[in-house]
Amino acid sequence: xAKFIVxxxxxxxxxxxxxxxxxxxxxxxxxxxxxxxxxxxxSMRPGNTKSAQQWIDELNAQYGMDQGIIKGYAIWLSNSARxxxxxxxxxxxxxxxxxxxxxxxxxxxxxxxxxxQTAIAIPLGVAAARKQYSIMDYSVTVIALVGISMPTFFVAxxxxxxxxxxxxxxxLVGMQGRNYATLDAAxxxxxxxxxxxxxxxTLIIIGIGGLMRxxxxxxxxxxxxxxxxxxxxxxxxxxxxxxxHAFRNTLIPLVTIxxxxxxxxxxxxxxTETLFGIRGIGYYAYNSMVVGDIPFTMFYLAxxxxxxxxxxxxxxxxxxxxxPRVRIN
Length: 329
Description:
Layout: H1 2-28, H2 33-43, H3 52-62, H4 69-81, E1 87-88, E2 93-94, H5 95-130, H6 135-149, H7 152-166, H8 185-223, H9 226-233, H10 238-259, H11 262-267, H12 270-276, H13 281-291, H14 294-322
Antiparallel strand pairs: 1-2
């Protein structure tokens, strides 16, 4: 197992180089107006002593944009290895400071949504497979298809219409209420939690359908296997057949989905956070891409690449955990 992990880490490192190089090339090919706009804004700030052209030259040199693609990427990679990601042009603060400021909102939302999705989708998927062609099965199938089909912006709009406009239970956007400044620590916590309810509901609705459908499909395949028929023919209780034989094998493909969910816990929900005005990493990533904030965009995309590779590695390791027959050599 140790040898396998080392080999996979080496492969992940190689893939990371290629992915970040492609990202750098895309950022390098952005119109120069983004750099010029940022340089012009910096030159007009109070107390500035540099001209716009000086700022353009400094920004290009800082991120290797004036050295060609290969050398520029080497400069960015060298700076990144030392933890120097530069300053966000849009937020005028170090990229790492901005990341530390916004990541925890996204993580809390993603983690809560992930736990609730898993707790609901997997049991319902198993129940639907056990009672194929029943009302339960048809209900789960319809719910799953509806959840898969609805886009994020539609779900968010419907939730806003019902719970914010019609019922008035939640505010349309934002993370703070009108009296936030006058609240104590506990009051501010509950005020923030109140504002996160609708975004988390959106994440649950758009994510639960796929996991539910995937669980049902794999459970049906396992229940129709020969060893399950044999277990039933031996007179084992149905509960033991499901829990000890069928469900354990259903987990094998599920770990791919669950392991691949790791990026979603930290990468933020770009559309959801933007629609609800939640200032998580997805919100800042979207705005950085719109205004051409190259430093933060590079950092964000490289961060997502690392999480994706790590999620795939965790999935491979979990295969051997959930199924003793799997041996990695």
